[in-house]
Write a structure and sequence with these properties.
single chain; 209 residues; alpha+beta; Pnp Oxidase, Chain A; 6-stranded antiparallel β-sheet; 6 helices
Length: 209
């Protein structure tokens, strides 16, 4: 990811918190010589400063066939907003876009029910506890035949993150007046997504004070 110094974010705690808050990610891999991408929920965990991502794909999705052979990339994105040059002090300015994105790379390890039912159970439990803990009793109450059929139709994975890149493009390359103007305009927007970017900008401005 192209990250000019003004927008570069290397605080792992901040990036992990962002990934957890925006965990429906785009997962990109190479499979059979083609770029494959899937849009899936991921579980983000940290233990002893090691960041791991886990999730699953449908077994019919060919993307998993590229796992364990090369790096995959998980792309986490949040709110984004168009920035009008009318908000800047200088007339000679151009439009841009503000956004936050985090890229996490690593080599996924495949998990299948046939090879390791314990690992598959652990992956499923992690997904349930992250997204709807109360569903656990429902899942446990399903017949073994049904649950095993579901788990045999997916391919799980766990990926240790070996490269983590964050980009917070929030007008840090502009003057303080420009940043305040942009933040105020976004906070007053009728678009909740734009307002969310305004909140991030306001927090950055307060941190710089």
């Amino acid at each position: 990811m192209y990250r000019p110094n003004a927008f570069r974010e290397d605080d792992n705690d901040k990036l992990v918190a962002f990934m957890k808050a925006n965990s429906f990610a785009t997962f990109v891999s190479m499979a059979k010589g083609q770029i494959c991408a899937s849009h899936i929920p991921l579980v983000v965990t940290v233990q002893d400063d090691v960041i791991k991502l886990s999730g699953h794909l449908a077994k019919q999705n060919p993307q998993w066939q590229g796992f364990e052979n090369a790096e995959s990339l998980a792309i986490f994105t949040g709110a984004h907003a168009y920035i009008s040059p009318a908000l800047y002090e200088k007339h000679e300015s151009v439009p841009t876009w503000n956004y936050i994105a985090v890229h996490a790379s690593g080599v996924p390890k495949i998990i299948t029910f046939n090879d390791s039912p314990e690992s598959m159970d652990k992956m499923i439990d992690g997904m349930i506890s992250t997204y709807e803990a109360r569903y656990k009793s429902h899942w446990d109450g399903l017949s073994n035949r049904y649950r095993e059929g579901m788990m045999k139709d997916i391919v799980g994975f766990e990926m240790t993150v070996t490269r983590l890149e964050g980009k917070y493009k929030l007008s840090q390359n502009r003057s303080l007046v420009d940043r305040q103007n942009v933040s105020n305009a976004l906070l007053q927007s009728s678009d909740p997504t734009a307002r969310a970017v305004g909140v991030e900008m306001q927090q950055n401005l307060e941190a710089d004070e």
